[in-house]
């Protein structure tokens, strides 16, 4: 199928006695905004890292837009996916333009066309006035926005974001969410993780709630709420399935 398909994925990190992923399976069709949700330690970042080919699963199958995630397809998948990691993946001593030029070059983009694209996105993300400022002088919200631009310069069909709105102010968050909706409306698929369930409820057409390395439930947020009469919102559904116990 097109989209993302994860089947029976297992992963135990070296030196760890407990598996992080214990037979995780889910599918997201192409063209949607999807959410991968779960408590701390559920395995969301691990899953995303395996989807992107940054970490290897021990067993199971991952298929991205019809391509199995394996060595032979790594380069093709790299061009399909844009990844926005949880940690800011920019060089702090370089300016936004210098950073983005570097990332653009990695994908084979060069010259005037790349510079125009960079300036276009810096404007969309409200960073044009700070284009030549070093990243370490940026606020947290500005860094998050620049981090997203680095992942979209090659126009990925699938954008994967790990907590893109964590710790940003209301203004930056609104801007980022609007961008994701616009990017999706142009045909791209989006998969994102968040602990902000109100946000996920309004943004996502489809969510997977995972816990302890397994898929617990999947569905459209509004339908999941409807199906559980005691639940008023996605947070209630989340608590219904994952419980109140604190996680390490
Ligand atoms: N590189 C690693 N080496 C060993 N254990 C790891 C590594 N990365 C993650 N883990 C462990 O795997 C489990 C799942 O971590 P992961 O970061 O995938 O969860 P998460 O759902 O993204 O959590 P959070 O919401 O806190 O970001 C945790 O117990 C974590 O300690």
Automatic annotation (TrEMBL):
Residues 4-237 form the ABC transporter domain. GO terms for molecular function: ATP binding; ATP hydrolysis activity. InterPro entries: AAA+_ATPase, ABC_transporter-like_ATP-bd, ABC_transporter-like_CS, P-loop_NTPase. PROSITE patterns: ABC_TRANSPORTER_1 (PS00211), ABC_TRANSPORTER_2 (PS50893). Keywords: ATP-binding, Nucleotide-binding. This is ABC-2 type transport system ATP-binding protein. It comes from Chitinophaga niastensis.
